[in-house]
Amino acid sequence: MTRDCVTVTLLDNVFEIATKMKQYDIGFVPVVEGKKLIGVVTDRDLVIRGYAEKKSGSTAVEEVITKDVATIEASTSIEEAAKIMAKDQVRRLPVVENGELVGIVAIGDLAVRDNFEDEAGEALSQISSDKIPVGAK
User: Fold this and answer.
1) Sheet holding 28-33, edge to edge
2) Which of 23, 27, 98, 135 is least crowded, fewest Cβ atoms below 10 Å from its Cβ?
3) Positive/negative CA dihedral, 66, 32, 29, 104
């Protein structure tokens, strides 16, 4: 789990999120109020809900945020985290305690643990299996 997460607030805009993504080489940014997780913005969110809809860099976070986000608690097992990633087809899960963000678990975090390479591989396989091929409608 990554504990020191780059975050944004509802006061930020699309340009500021994109700048942080570039600066930190990330594609997933939690949106918080204080420490409370209220949603996330992914690089895909910026493209689909932002630029593809001809929004400007000054567009508010509120217009591109994903609010219905799967989360886990720090006590969640690696196996359960992998199952949630596979079921929800996500590569990253915010870790919360009492609604407050404490970290992020990524599919790569699961893969680096020798005993859990199978779980990570299975989760990644399920995450990728139902995706529409590039160029398909």
Assistant:
1) 28-33, 36-42, 100-106, 92-97
2) 135
3) negative
Contact 79, 97 (CB under 8 A): no
Instruction: Please state the rounded mean pLDDT for residues 55-84.
Output: 90
CATH topology of domain 70-130: CBS-domain (3.10.580)
- Of the options 3.10.580.10, 3.40.50.720, 1.10.10.10, 3.90.105.10, the CATH number for the domain spanning 1-69: 3.10.580.10
CA distances from 113 to 92, 120, 121, 137 (A): 16, 9, 12, 37
Rounded to whole angstroms, how far apart are CA atoms 21 and 43?
8
